[in-house]
Amino acid sequence: MLIKEYRICMPLTTEEYRVGQLYTISKHSHQESEKGEGVEVVKNEPHEDPVHGTGQFTEKRVHLSSKLPSWARAVTPRIFYITEKAWNYYPYTITADSCSLQCSFLPKFSIYIETKYEDNCGDSENIFCSDKILGDHEVTFLDIAFDEIPERYYRSLEDPRFFSSAKTGRGPLREGWRQHTKPIMCSYKLVSVKFEVWGLQTRVEQFVHKVIRDILLIGHRQAFAWVDEW
User: Fold this and answer.
1) Which of 51, 128, 163, 185 has the smallest set of CB atoms within 10 Å of its CB?
2) Record's Gene Ontology CC terms (predicted)?
3) Residue 84 CA to chain centroid, in angstroms?
4) Per residue in 141-160, is it b (16+ CB within 10 Å) or e — as a string?
5) Cα–Cα distance measured from residue 95 to residue 111, given in angstroms and rounded to the nearest whole number
6) What are the domain boundaries of the chain?
7) What's the pTM value of the predicted model, to 2 decimals?
8) Neighbour-count burial for 106-124, b at 16+ CB within 10 Å, e otherwise
9) Which CATH class is domain 2-226?
10) Looking at residue 96, what DSSP letter applies?
11) Other CB atoms within 10 A of residue 220 CB
């Protein structure tokens, strides 16, 4: 199992981010669905947790066939999707993904994501109580303005280095923005990827983490760049 913690800061409050996150997910899902792939909602219902209180449970199928690398497509059925189960008790969420395939020969893998949101610049230590985590895990800060994303996803209108919000007056983001920007919040994500297959484990787990990193960067860039829409 490969565990990494990602910290993504945004020039928003946690309450603003809650609205922006829902808008971004909805808009992105619609765009992907128009391409013949995307998100299929299976369940969306209230859920009560004894610790976190009232929340929402969702189960989705995320269709991914065309997004796999060539070496993975060679051994994957044409119809491929990830089943995502999420429990949202904002500002705390749990997401568990499992590989759900239309065949029996491809081994299963799992992704487990815990998320916490706080109004700070990502300086909360041990936010997930590390005694629950087996072994050390890497902490990576993702900078929505200056970290590279795959070229095919780049849009100049969604570049935080150039975007300026007409409604909030926030942006563009300059070098060192995380230290002096107000308001600011951080999305803390503890991501565990498991693919226990000899010979493929390291390659698959590292690949999945790279995909998750790119998704997090792109999604948070868009959430800020679309702030005037939501």
Assistant:
1) 51
2) cell periphery; cytoplasm
3) 12
4) ebbbbeeebeeeeeeeebbb
5) 8
6) 2-226
7) 0.84
8) eeebebbbbbbbeeebbee
9) alpha beta
10) E
11) 23
